[in-house]
Every structure is written in structure tokens, then in C-alpha cells.
Design goal:
There is one protein chain. By secondary structure, this protein is mostly beta strands. The chain is 4% helix and 52% strand. The chain is built from 3 helices and 33 strands. It has helices at residues 3-12, 144-147, 300-303, and strands at residues 30-41, 44-52, 62-68, 75-81, 92-100, 103-114, 117-127, 134-135, 156-164, 167-175, 181-188, 194-202, 210-219, 222-230, 246-253, 258-266, 274-280, 286-291, 308-309, 316-321, 324-329, 337-348, 354-357, 362-369, 375-381, 386-392, 397-401, 419-423, 430-438, 441-446, 450-455, 464-470, 473-483. The mean pLDDT is 96. Bound molecules: beta-D-fructofuranose (FRU).
């Protein structure tokens, strides 16, 4: 067993699991950030991630690795990449995976930052068993000579591979000389020898100072370019976090190698969602997963010495409807779900509310008919410490508030972002809400149009669900299921 695997095995035993999610992917021990190399390979999904096993803070990046058949029950695999070479001396940064023949290829960023020199280049590693990876001896495969006069290697990272017709392509994040996001497109016949193709898309001054983690794919007749801009300026309720994730919807003009934008919007309106990456499964469905955290924030599991930090969102099936990215959670297999509550026709009013003890790993589904409803309030936690979710039927707005949910989380944003509001239109006068609650996170899916994702760190043990209202609210149906894992399924 390698030194790092030995370390992880030993240290994982001492991790404090109080806040550790049960059905979201986390590392056995240590820090994680971006999802990397998300791929469907030989009947299983593989997900790699930015990983620093030796502390619950960011450090020289490794690639952690897990796989799953059903996107819920993950099996941890040995660390796939460790920084061992000069060109990646300070980390194996984000990247992606692709299958060629029987081989699984990874493309990642070698990060070098020493003696006042910062350099990011794109590198290849491959594997025949999908577990052990070998780095290409002629790494890096894309470096300064490919981008001279176009971009700088100081910020040049996060390659996402894809194949179109008979060519391999990758999109890579960079920025312009005047600090705007810029996505570069490269092409190759064999994944080893690369040519610069074009600048796929350049951001405006209003779209952040650098774009990270691009992803480009076709979906429902459109092209979708996902990027994660740093410091996207706020507009109304949108882009409140220090960094955002944005979907550009449009068409790639392959003659020019340019992305023609028809629409763009923030992908998730919560506090913790960054660097999403997608893959396509055998049914040609697009599944997306993101880092369920945000840069520049205090991290209670680190501050409290719990030995781990960061997790992935639940994988989401995505589509494009009316030039917008829509999302729903992947189906969680019935064998992992236990029914806790099923109630129909609840009428809430100022004197009547509902309170039920639920599990800290619960899925709550609500169907509500708008006609007689004003404002629904959902609290998760205890009466005096909870995550607060509300829906205003007149304004058609969803609110998520973690300001009173336990440990205070401070970030680089001014003022602190601990409450967000998002437009969420009723569909046929109805609101369909699904809340995926895990030990320290909640993901809200509302009418497919809106998702709001956030972490929270309660101080209390008990988790109850409170349904309240301002005015009268008619809830057609409420169900609560516990997500359970039998030991033998782990
Ligand atoms: C995005 C990011 C990437 C980089 C990685 C480093 O969260 O900053 O651009 O490759 O994290 O861990």
C-alpha cells in the first residue's frame, strides 16, 4: 500500500463524523474541493476530486478517487494522482477524464508556484484498470508555446476533455490581460499532441476577473458552456457569493471555434455550490456534480478539528428548457430510503402548524397548490436553531436563510451572505419542492427551475421539520424519507 493510502486508512478512523454527510461524497479524511474527471467508464461512474489528505485545509493538490454504480453509494479508491514531478510540484489541479479504446485518460493542470514563478500547464495520465494511473512521460502536453500572445500560463487551468466527430478537444480556463474570464479551445488527434484552436468565449467586465473549471457539451439541441467565475459582480439577488457558477446557453460556431451566447444565468442560488462538472451516462443523460462549498469561507469542520472538510453535491440530472439549465436530483434507489412521514391535505394557518422529528439525512417532498396560499415557512432543526426556507406565493420567491442555523460562517463577501432569495415561478399554479438534507447540508429543488444549496453546522443533536405559514397555506402532500445505508451496502 502506498504511503498516502496508508496514511488515509489510519487517519480516517479518527475523523469526527458528527457533520459528515451520509449520502454525499466526502473524502475519508482531509480536504476536498472541485469534482474532477467525472466519467462513466465500464458500467460505473468514476469521480475524482481535488484532495489534500494531510489536513482539513487546502494544500498541495492530489486527485482523490471514488466510484459508484448508482451515484449514491460510493466506494473509495486509492489516490489517483500525487504531485511528484517538477511541472506539478505545487499540485495536480483540476481536470477531466475521457475514454479512448480501453484506456481511461485524465487531463489535469500541473501547478508550479516557486521563487516568484507561477506556471500552469496541462498534463496527461492514463490507466487501463481505471485505478492506477501513469503520468505521460512527455508532460506537459499544453504549455506556454501553445498560447503565446493569447493568454498567460499564470492562470491557465482546469482542462475539460470531450470528443466531437473524430477529434478530441479540451476547453481550458484562462483570463485576458485586463482580467476578464476567457475560455480557450484546443484540439488533438490522439490526446497527446495538442493544437490551439480558438478563443471559445471571452467574458465582459461584468462577468468576473477569471473563469475556472469550464465544461462544454450539447444538451437538448443547445450548446452549454459552464464556467465558474471568480468575483462575478452582484446583480439583484444573483451572484451573491464571492465566486459563482454560470451556465452559458447558445451555439458553438465550429467554423470559427466561437461560442455564440443566447442566454446565461447562475446555476445555483444557494451559498455553497462551485466548480460543477458533468458527464454523460450510457442513456446519454447529463449528470452534474459540484463542490458543495465556497472559497474564502470559514470551515467549521476544520476549525473544530473534525479532520475533514468539503463534500460534493448530490449528482443532478440536467437539461435545457427555454434556454435555461434545469436540474433534478438523480433518483435515489428505493433500497436506501425509508418512509418516515406521508400526509395529505394539510392546511396551515396562523394558529396551526406542523412539527415532526425527522432524520438528519432526510428527503422532504412537498406539493402545494397555489390557489389559497400566501407564504410557506419550513424550518429544519429546532425551534430556536434552524435552517429557514420560505416561499412567497405572491412574489414567487424562494428564500434560504442559514443565519440562525448553528455555527456562524464568515466569508470574503461583504456583507456576509447567509441568506439568499431566488425567483421561482409556479407551474400551473403549483409548487413542487424537494429538500435533500444531509448532516450538514441542504439542497433545494423547486419546480426544476431553481436550486439552492448550502451547508450549515448545527449545534444541537435533534433535527425536526417545522411547517408554518403566514396566512393560509394548503399543502397537497408532504412526504419525508430517511436516507439509510445498511452497513453491508457501504
Ligand atoms: C477551482 C480551483 C481550480 C483549480 C483548483 C485548485 O475551485 O481554483 O481553478 O484547479 O480549484 O484546487
Amino acid at each position: 500500500m502506498s504511503k498516502v493510502s496508508q496514511y488515509i486508512k489510519e487517519k480516517a478512523k479518527s475523523v469526527n463524523t458528527f457533520y459528515k454527510p451520509s449520502y454525499h461524497l466526502t473524502a475519508p479524511v482531509g480536504w476536498i474541493n472541485d469534482p474532477n474527471g467525472f466519467i462513466y467508464f465500464k458500467g460505473e461512474y468514476h469521480l475524482f476530486y481535488q484532495y489534500y489528505p494531510y489536513a482539513s485545509e487546502w494544500g498541495p493538490m492530489h486527485w482523490g478517487h471514488a466510484k459508484t454504480k448508482d451515484l449514491v453509494n460510493w466506494e473509495h479508491l486509492p489516490v489517483a494522482l500525487e504531485p511528484t514531478e517538477e511541472y506539478e510540484a505545487d499540485g495536480c489541479f483540476s481536470g477531466s477524464a475521457i475514454v479512448k479504446g480501453d484506456r481511461l485518460y485524465l487531463m489535469y493542470t500541473g501547478h508550479y508556484e516557486r521563487n516568484g514563478i507561477k506556471k500552469e500547464t496541462q498534463c496527461i495520465a492514463y490507466s487501463d484498470d481505471g485505478i492506477h494511473f501513469e503520468k505521460y512521460s512527455k508532460n506537459p502536453v499544453i504549455s506556454e508555446e501553445h498560447i503565446s500572445g493569447i493568454a498567460d500560463v499564470t492562470d491557465f487551468r482546469d482542462p475539460k476533455l470531450f470528443k466531437k466527430n473524430d477529434l478530441f478537444y479540451c476547453v481550458v480556463a484562462s483570463k485576458t490581460a485586463d482580467n476578464r474570464g476567457q475560455i480557450l479551445l484546443f484540439e488533438s488527434n490522439d490526446l497527446l499532441d495538442w493544437r490551439f484552436t480558438s478563443v471559445l468565449l471571452e467574458g465582459t467586465q461584468d462577468q468576473g476577473i477569471m473563469w475556472e473549471c469550464p465544461d462544454l457539451f450539447e444538451l437538448d439541441g443547445k450548446d452549454v458552456l459552464i464556467v465558474s467565475p471568480i468575483q462575478m459582480p452582484r446583480i439583484g439577488h444573483e451572484y451573491l457569493n464571492i465566486s459563482s457558477s454560470v451556465a452559458f446557453i447558445g451555439t458553438v460556431n465550429w467554423e470559427l471555434g466561437e461560442f455564440e451566447v443566447e442566454n446565461y444565468h447562475e446555476i445555483d442560488s444557494g451559498m455553497d455550490f462551485y466548480a460543477p462538472q458533468t458527464c454523460e451516462n450510457e442513456k446519454k443523460e447529463r449528470v452534474m456534480v459540484a463542490w458543495m462549498q465556497m472559497w474564502g469561507r470559514t470551515m467549521p469542520t476544520n476549525d473544530l478539528n473534525h479532520g475533514w472538510a468539503g463534500s460534493m453535491t448530490i449528482p443532478r440530472k440536467i437539461g435545457v428548457v427555454k434556454n435555461k439549465l434545469v436540474q433534478e436530483s438523480i433518483e435515489i434507489n428505493k433500497k436506501y430510503r425509508k418512509n418516515l412521514l406521508d400526509i395529505n391535505n394539510i392546511v396551515l394557518n396562523d394558529t396551526n402548524h406542523l412539527e415532526a422529528l425527522i432524520s438528519k439525512n432526510s428527503i422532504v417532498n412537498l406539493d402545494i397548490e397555489q390557489s389559497k396560499s400566501k407564504k410557506l415557512v419550513i424550518k429544519i432543526g429546532t425551534n430556536d436553531e434552524n435552517i429557514y426556507v420560505s416561499y412567497d406565493f405572491e412574489k414567487e420567491e424562494l428564500t434560504l436563510d442559514r443565519s440562525n442555523s448553528g455555527f456562524k460562517i464568515i466569508g470574503d463577501e461583504k456583507p456576509i451572505v447567509d441568506r439568499r432569495v431566488s425567483k421561482c415561478r409556479l407551474v400551473d399554479n403549483k409548487l413542487k419542492l424537494s429538500l435533500y438534507i444531509d448532516s450538514s447540508s441542504i439542497e433545494i429543488f423547486a419546480n426544476k427551475e431553481t436550486t439552492m444549496t448550502t451547508t450549515f453546522y448545527r449545534k444541537k443533536e435533534d433535527v425536526s421539520l417545522f411547517l408554518e405559514s403566514e396566512g393560509v397555506v394548503h399543502v397537497d402532500s408532504l412526504s419525508v424519507e430517511e436516507v439509510t445505508f445498511l452497513e453491508e451496502l457501504r
